[in-house]
Amino acid sequence: MSTVINNIIDRMKNLREFEIEVEIPEGKSLRGVVPFDTTINKNKGKFKVYAISKEEAEQKVKEFLER
C-alpha cells in the first residue's frame, strides 16, 4: 500500500499548470461542474489544467468537451 501512496505523492509533486486554448463549437453548452478554471469568450475557451504533461492536459480538456 505504501507504494501506491508514494506513487500518488510523486505524481502530485510533479503536476504543473497548463493553459489549454481550444475552439468551442457553435451551440456547445457546458453543463454541470467544470473541473478546470475556465474562461470562454465567444467560441474560444481557455482551460487551466493541472497535469504531468501538456499532452495529458490537452487530453483531459478533450475528454471533458466530448462528454
Quickly describe the structure:
It contains 2 helices and 3 strands.
How would you sum up this structure, described in words?
The chain is an alpha+beta fold. It has one domain (16-66). Helices cover 39% and strands 31% of the residues. The chain has two helices and three strands, in the order αβββα. The N and C termini lie far apart (33 Å). The mean pLDDT is 92.
Give the arrangement of secondary structure elements.
Layout: H1 2-14, E1 16-23, E2 37-41, E3 44-51, H2 54-66
Antiparallel strand pairs: 1-3, 2-3
Please indicate the count of domains.
1
Q: What structural class do helix, strand and pairing data support?
A: alpha+beta
Shape: elongated
Low-pLDDT regions: none
Q: Which range best describes the helical content: under 10%, 10-25%, 25-40%, 40-55%, 55-70% or over 70%?
A: 25-40%
How much of the sequence is in beta strands? 25-35%
Terminal Cα separation, in Å? 33 Å
Mean pLDDT: 92
Q: How many strand units?
A: 3
Order of helices and strands: HEEEH
Rounded to the nearest angstrom, the radius of gyration is 14 Å
Helix tally equals 2
The main sheet comes to: 3 strands, antiparallel
Major sheet strand order: 1-3-2
Features:
67 residues, alpha+beta, elongated, single chain, 31% strand
